[in-house]
Amino acid sequence: MMLVFVIIYQIAKASEYATILRGEGKINARVNRTMAWLLVAFFFLGLYGIWMCHQALIDRMLPISASEHGVEYDKMFLVTLVVTGIVFFITQTALFWFAYRYQSTEKRTAFFYPHNNKLELVWTTIPAIAMAVLVTIGLRNWIHMTSAAPKEAMVVEVVGKQFNWIVRYPGKDAVMGKRDFRKINDANNVLGLDWSDKDNMDDIIAQNGELHLVVNKPVSLLIGSRDVIHDVGLPHFRMKMDAVPGIVTTMWFTPTITTAKMKEITGNKDFVYEISCDQMCGKGHYSMRGTVIVETQEEYDAWMAKQQTYYASANPAPAADSTAAAQPTTDSVKAITMK
Amino acid sequence: MSDVIIQGTNVAHTHDAHGGHHGHEHHEQHFITKYIFSQDHKVIGKQFLITGIIWAIIGALMSVFFRLQLGFPNETFPIMEKFLGEWAKGGKLNPEFYYALVTMHGTILVFFVLTAGLSGTFANLLIPLQIGARDMASPFMNMLSYWFFFISSVFMFVSLFIQTGPASGGWTTYPPLSALKEASMGSGLGMDLWLISMALFVVSSLLGGLNYISTILNMRTKGMTMTRMPLTIWALFFTAVLGVLSFPVLFSGFVLLIFDRNFGTSFYLSEIFIGGKALSHIGGSAILYQHLFWFLGHPEVYIIMLPGMGMASEVLSNHSRKPIFGYTAMIISLIGITVLAFVVWAHHMFVTGMSPFLGSIFVLLTLLIAVPSAVKVFNWLTTMWKGNIRFTVPMMFAIGFVSLFISGGLTGLFLGNSALDIHLHDTYFVVAHFHIVMGVSAFFGMFAGIYHWFPKMFGRFMNNTLGYIHFFITLAGAYLIFWPMHYEGIAGMPRRYYDYSAWESFKNFESLNSFISIAAILVFFAQLIFVVNFFVSIFRGRKVTVKNPWGSPTLEWTTPINPGHGNWEGDIPEVYRWPYDYKDDGNGNDFIPQTTPLKPGEEAH
Predict the structure, then answer these.
(1) A-proximal residues of B, 410-469, CB under 8 Å
(2) What is the average pLDDT across B429-433?
(3) How far apart are CA A264 and CA A280, in angstroms?
(4) Of B44, B70, B536, B587, which one has the fewest beta carbons inside 10 Å?
(5) Entry pTM
């Protein structure tokens, strides 16, 4: 490595001396021409590179959106891409073309052109209009996706902790019971459910981070965190929301493609919808993985019928006094499940 | 060259014929007061620059280490163990330390290099020289500004070597992760040192910023009206305004964090169960910190961008031999950017659970900022149009700056629109966006500045051939690294992951990650070409033989080749015209210095 450096340096030094010997004016003209050409070459190589990059990566992108508004999302993305793509192409072409076209020569003198109000007005207005269009599309989608969830939506709670996801279903009564972080213990009450609240008795908790959803049925997620900030990232549904300790955040969407169907679409039999943690949460951040299983109503019901309530699984019969559960607690940092 | 051109009644010109040889009028100063505890703005500028370069090497080296992990998650690199010891046992980076490296890379590059190293260098060097002042309003405060930065650097540097490692919660250090020692190893002593260091950094930044503002407002030479100032000065002025108004808010955020960490308060903490027990904190808001942080954090982006914009304007105009197009529009767009920079911070927080209505306001304000940015781009392009372009090394970097600014700026339209951000947030799309626009683009502005004003700083030129090599490798490398990252982001690949191999959705980018890592490592070594060129040229570079080697109308080139403390021998020159008079002066020169009085019948710009 050092050797390469020394060689480059020596060449550079030599060419610098040559510059002085041959007279600065002359060599400058030659260097100037070379640089103008190199910039043009860079521009065309760059365009070619963009094309190559696209060809190489397009097959690895996400499959078609698996949620209703994700389809809208993809449309809006395309519109923005076209608008920015046009601007990108025009301005970059102008930049490199001007550089080449107006390279210094002995004959040329620069055109004294300090300002032109009309021109400046034009190119203040055009971006302003383009922005107005993008903002309008954006806000329309934004208002839609952040609106209140439909009444028929199923409600599921997703809680993050270092470093995994805990999912709670409201059970038969479709009501989530109260919970209190002071009642949490890792042995038999991972979410701190308040057993004095009857609504908790039929709640079901999946500690493996598996989120079961019904296809074409809206779902409203209540998102929380036990410790630091996490983020429920659902790339296949084009959705994301932080999990913040102390507050409950929400998002809703309607999954439209079952996991089984998506396996067909992608031709990947290992395909699975994943929940990624998108807010840095500590050393196990990268392994904080959950999964989403989108299935038909029948499959969902069959799965649900097999689930035990958390109360029953955490308090094997006879039902122990829950408040006495001041058991030796596990260190949640050590209890991570690293992949 | 300039000796011939500068005519007229200006007193300073009596010295011009032998300008370079009068350097020993000043009393010889002791080495310590001249180079270490110097109050000369030019020396302080160089101190900022060299400290910045050292930090840049450290910060970039960190990125090499974590890129090795990302690109080759299944390999081991024994050389890493040599550098990092226990943290890379057997040549495999420890996840905890991976996060520490990512955090430090961000902190160092954003604050120590692109804030202190960039505006510290050029505000110090250029403000007095270009407005015609002998020094800053308070040279002593200016010296303190550097030394606070130095002490801040020492704290940050020390934190790299402590047993629990430096801060590791990301450069944004969101609580509760950064507030609770149980949450991560880096949230222990490393985080305390980080906070101390950053608090000192804020002090340094305020001392500097207040000085820059008062110098620009009060110490301009006769005739140097605000509208005769070069755009570099306008840009540095607004940079300082942004810093002075937003750094104190960051400071308050840090103070509350220090209280939460050490004195049992609950500003940011509520309902937390960690380390096997429920904490007593209730009622705080983790989101409050994010508001306080981004109230600086977003203006910070422009603190980084504006000096580059100013210098690129100056360099593009000078080496195109044309006035900057739309001088007034450039100033107005700077004002627009500065004002808007304060009201867009929450676009970093669209998915924090913030009110969607508030989110939509911030969408509107954020996309508004694209308008002044677009105006600037069009004006730069028109500045080059019908010019007489000399492809000097600074000019190459200025062209690269514009190219990268366009590329990185346009992707901001995706992220600033909340309905698109909701999927792209915290993915590699963000990484690609901000690295191109405020990372590499700002660096290109800085490089343009360094190559352009190196002759003023050291009386010598940097080596051109090395400069061209440095330029092309860096430009091509930057695009090779960051362009493909957009695809990863669109595919939802989250940032700040140590390893993607367990993820069905993201593991297909493994070969791309290796490619990016190789490009990043090559670009890192290309920067060493610059470093060698810089330091060797200080002592061995080709000597500057004329006072105004670039043929520039601005004031800094009327000083002697190696100006002493006080900048001008004799009186400070008076200014008669705007700084971009690139027109025939009647003597075969294609520019007229600001110190030349208007000819009879000539109209001022």
Answers:
(1) 410-411, 413-414, 417-420, 422-423, 425-427, 463-466, 468-469
(2) 97
(3) 33
(4) B587
(5) 0.92
